[in-house]
Amino acid sequence: MFKNKAPLVILLTIILSIVIILHGMQAIKKVTEIETLWQHYNQDTTKKIAALSVIQNNLGSVGLIDNFKDFSIKHDASLIPIIEDNKKQLLQAIESYKNTELTIEQRQALINLETVINEISEKFENAKIASTDQIIEIDVKPIDNALELLVNQEAQRSKSQELETNIALKKTLNFIYIGTAFVPIVILGGLIFLYFLRHTIKTNIELKILTNAVREISKGDFLQKVKIPDSNDELIELAKVFNNMSANLYTTSISKDYLDNIINTMIDMLFVINYEGIIQTVNLAGLQVLEYGQAELIGKPFNTIFQDIKESPTDVQLIELTNSNTHKNIETNIKTKTGRILSVICSFSAMKDKDGDSFEIVCILKDITERKSYEDNLRKLSGAVEQSLSSMVITNINGEIEFVNKKFTENTGYTFEEVKGKTPRILKSGKHSPEFYKNLWDTILSGKEFRSDICNRKKDGTLSWELMSIAPIKDTKGMITHFISVKIDDLERRQAEERLKYLAHYDVLTGIPNRALFDDRLNQAIHGAQRNKKKFAILFLDLDRFKLVNDTLGHDIGDLLLKEVAVRLTECIRKVDTVSRMGGDEFRIILSQIEQYYNPTIVAQKIIEALGNKFELNGNTCSIGVSIGICVYPDNGDTAEILLKNADLAMYQVKERGRNDFQYYEASMDAANIERISLETSLRKAIEKDEFVLYYQPQVNLFTGKIVGAESLIRWQHPQMGLISPSKFIPIAEETGLINDIGNWVVNSACSQGKKWHDLGYNNLRISANLSSVQFRNPSLVAKIKYAVDNTGFNPNFLDLELTESGIMKDVQQNIKMMTEIKAIGARISIDDFGTGYSSLSYLKSFPIDILKVDQSFIKNSTIDPSDAIITSTIINMAHSFMFKVIAEGVELVEQLELLRTFNCDEIQGYIFSKPLPANEFLKLLEEERHLHLL
């Protein structure tokens, strides 16, 4: 009943309370004013009484009030200063009195006092000056009147003020008594009213609790629950309904969260789109993959993720989908926020209401980017496998064939249809024991690779040996699922190995032992001679006038001459002896177990006679001679090093004496070393005197004809002996260690010249420099190379460093480490004169090299000697299989050029294009853009 009146009653109560409070505050203010007035009055009265006291005391002290007429200045002159001092105090007291609250009569009385005081003072002064016996007469009546007036008025004012104060206090106390009596009445009325309002207030509180609970539910908190009231049936029913609603909403919320969690745990992207193509919902996978925030996609067109994608679904397609019951897939691309393009399959389906009407579209996008990449890689791999020169077979875990490549069909005669589903046992030849096959299966089933030579039977029944490798293929869990077998024709491999072994020990041009085999047989001869107490001899041979033949008739004739020389030398010795070619026109012979000291003389004379006969070479007739140095073990030395040195000294004695003769080593020949020492001395000063120069021979791309590189070749411009060939001073430099300084000069000069050419615009030109095997063993080599490129500013990516094949085979592991450090600088590694050394394939594949340079001895006869052509082709194919680039040296004929193109050689250098040139002449070739003319 008080529900609607409660605000009015509360308002009246508040107003009444405010009135009582204001009444009390007014009473307090009155009391404060009375207290202030009383304090002011007391202060004023006290001030006045003090001033009156001063006036009375000072007037009395000079007798102005009592018996003043009897006072004579003559009888007491000492009163004059007292009078003056009292005057000051009187005037100060009067002035102080004036500063209080006064009536008009009081102010006039004070003025009269001042006048009388000044008059008394003046009369005293006059009496002092005029006569000592003068009697001062003063009318003191004004003083008495003034004092009486002041005292009377102060007394009346005090009584009046006290009366006024008492009246004010009485009124204030009455005001307080009335207010105090009214407060209990108000409080009692309020308590009575609150008693009647209790039910209404409780109802309002319960409604407020219910309202707050509803508000929290609207925010998504479905755990709200209210207490059932103990009164008011309507509220009880309303609370029950609310609790039921909250429970239902909570159940619905749990179901929605469950569905949201399912959607957000999907790996694929999910979108819900309305019939206008606007995104309504997107799951967590969609946001993460597309790199968008939820606010950036919700409410945006679905085609937002198909920007600039031609295969994107159109709005028409989406509308058609809503009007049909079909499920549609589209393979297309999407674009992420950062611009990445992803391949996806879009699966569209219409979402229908209870009446079967389409109202939204559900789109699931599956990222197939990785799968597409796998498919692309698989196509590439499949193409590579089909084009492979090796036979390949893939089987399942049971050994049943699932794939063979084209080479398998060519090698075996079986088509894929004939072997599909069968096992490789159809190729079984019967040449291997059961243990062989057991070992094979044990190895591959354990997850390891099996390698072996195997004999298989082709479809036509013929047998073939192959080098086979079988390896397991594992899935992502490490389980074996398939096996892959790779086989190559073992006959070709064996022939290639035999050929390489041959190349390692025999001279390619002449077919006789090379330096490596000679050194090995020399050591065997020393050990045999020590064991059997026998002697043997070494002959050093250097052809006379060979350079003239080579320069006038050409390198081809020179090569034919060297071959014929090797034949004639072989005919002059026994089978137990060894004749070998060291390179160029230098040969060495070991005569084993000589019985008489003069036996080497007989052989030397036979050689001189045999080589003295004219040579008929392709219609050309030529004559040469030979200088032979002879050294006998152990008379002229007991180590290989001493024997070789002494035989070399003996040969040089022959050359100095006139050539075409032989000479035994004698101790006196050591004097010949004087010239060598002189040459060494000059060599030490050659760098300081700037006597070295670099010539550059172009390296040309065999398919474009353009100059792509330049090999730097050192020359010594001796002031007296003229231009000295490297073959003369490099060995001395290597023996003395000067090769390190000379090699560093070559690398620095080559880099400096390369930088100049690059600055002129030829910035793709490579520069190559030769490294001696001695220099390559120097620990500081890498630091020197790095200094050269840093000091000159030359890009190390265009620097090729050439090493000889034989030089890198000493201390292989250390050389691999050195090469790796050089490669880290950025430079490339080339193997020079490949085919003339004794490289092992197992080491060759381990060397971090970039280029193989085929020795010119193979190139020269490649067009007329099938063996040399096969060797050249084999080296090129082998190099390409190792991903090496190939440069052919010494190319002089068009036929050689075309043959190298057929072999897919990469680059050539030789006289067919240009001889080595000084830097200024090489620059002219670049400026003229000279090309190799190709057919």
Characteristics:
alpha+beta, 935 residues, elongated, 5-stranded antiparallel β-sheet, single chain, 8-stranded mixed beta barrel
Describe the fold and architecture:
There is one protein chain. With 935 residues, the chain is an alpha+beta fold. The chain is 52% helix and 19% strand. The strands form five sheets. The chain has an eight-stranded mixed beta barrel, surrounded by four helices. A five-stranded antiparallel beta sheet has the order 2-1-5-4-3. β3 and β4 form a beta hairpin. α2 (79-98) packs antiparallel against α3 and α3 (104-130) crosses α4 (141-218). The model is unreliable at 61-77 (pLDDT under 50).
Write the layout of secondary structure elements.
Elements: H1 6-61, H2 79-98, H3 104-130, H4 141-218, H5 233-264, E1 269-274, E2 279-282, H6 284-290, H7 294-297, H8 315-322, E3 328-335, E4 341-352, E5 358-367, H9 369-387, E6 391-396, E7 401-404, H10 406-412, H11 416-419, H12 434-445, E8 450-457, E9 463-474, E10 480-489, H13 490-505, H14 515-532, E11 535-544, H15 546-553, H16 555-571, E12 578-583, E13 586-594, H17 599-612, E14 615-617, E15 620-622, E16 625-633, H18 640-657, E17 662-664, H19 673-686, E18 692-701, E19 707-718, E20 722-724, H20 726-736, H21 739-759, E21 766-770, H22 773-776, H23 781-792, E22 799-804, H24 812-825, E23 828-834, H25 841-844, E24 851-854, H26 856-860, H27 866-881, E25 885-889, H28 894-902, E26 907-909, H29 919-927
Parallel strand pairs: 16-17, 19-21, 21-22, 22-23, 23-24, 24-25, 25-26
Antiparallel strand pairs: 1-2, 1-5, 3-4, 4-5, 6-7, 6-10, 8-9, 9-10, 11-13, 11-16, 12-13, 14-15, 18-19, 18-26, 19-20
Helix pairs in contact: 1-2, 1-4, 2-3, 3-4, 4-5, 15-16, 19-20, 21-23
